[in-house]
Each structure stands twice: as structure tokens, then as C-alpha cells.
Amino acid sequence: QVQLVESGGGLVQAGGSLSLSCAASGRTFSSYAMGWFRQAPGKEREGVSCIIPSDGRTYYTDSVKGRFIISRDVAKNTVYLQMNNLEPEDTGVYYCVVRASSVQELCTMTRMRPGDYWGLGTQVTVSS
Predict the structure, then answer these.
(1) How far apart, in whole angstroms, are the C-alpha atoms of residue 53 and residue 71?
(2) N or C terminus of the chain with fewer C-beta within 10 Å?
(3) Bridge pairing between strands 10-13 and 122-127
């Protein structure tokens, strides 16, 4: 059974940093796209950053470029998101997602499809 377990969320002041982790179990996703989505209250879910673990290709949404860094540990089947210079607008529930696709396709998707895997999410709150 596939599981994606996120950790590392919390409360931080604006300008601070948090690091998220997504540990996958049940199968290996090295050639899949893995990434992070977030959903703020009253807003649509949006793709934040995605990576192909096997080759390191990455994608970032414009609002986090230069502040967030996605990385992976293939041996641990884990993806990380280092979030720096956090802003109140970064507040939301962050979900780990896996799909057999390119990084851009995963991070810009608007609809889930069969075969996608989602974690339960971790809350990130940035106070002003």
C-alpha cells in the first residue's frame, strides 16, 4: 500500500524558514514527478514545486522562485521542500503529490486523475 507522509509544518513569523519532508513508502517513485501543492483558506489548490527524483529536474511556481528549494533523497524515497523568507501568503495546508508525469504537468495540474497519490497534508502558518 502506497503512503505519502508529510512532516515539518508549523507556525513561523514572516521572513522565517521551514523545511517540509515527504516520505513515500509502498513503492519507488524515482522516475515519477513528486511535488508539493498547497491550499490556503478559500483558495484553489496550487502547485508549488515539483521534482523528478531520478534526474533532479525541477519546477517552481513564480511566487516561490528564489525562496523555496525542492530536493530529493532517492535512497530514502523522500522529497524535501526548504522554504525561506516565508510570507503570510505562503500560509496553507501543504500536500505531497506523486504522478507519473513531467514536473510541469504535475505542478500545473488542475484535476486529479486515477493513479495520483496524495498525502494527508501538513499545516504551514506564517504570521505577519
Answers:
(1) 8
(2) N
(3) parallel
